[in-house]
Amino acid sequence: MTTDHTHLARRYESEAEQYPEERAEALLDAAAAWKSAGDTERAARLLTEVIGGGGVDACWARAELAQLHLDAGDDAAAALQLSSLASDPALDEGPCQIVAEWFAGRGDHAQALRWYDRAVSRLAAEELRPNADQLSSPLVTILLRGRRETRRQLGLAPDATDECATVADAGWEALRPTLNGILAAPAAAAPRQVRVTAFTRDQRALARQRWPREYTDDDEVYYAACQQRWQALLDRGSRVEVVPLPVDGLVAFAQERDLSPTEPTTKERFGATVSRQLVISWPPQRNARCWCGSGAKYKKCCLRTL
Question: What is the pTM of this model?
Answer without folding.
Answer: 0.59
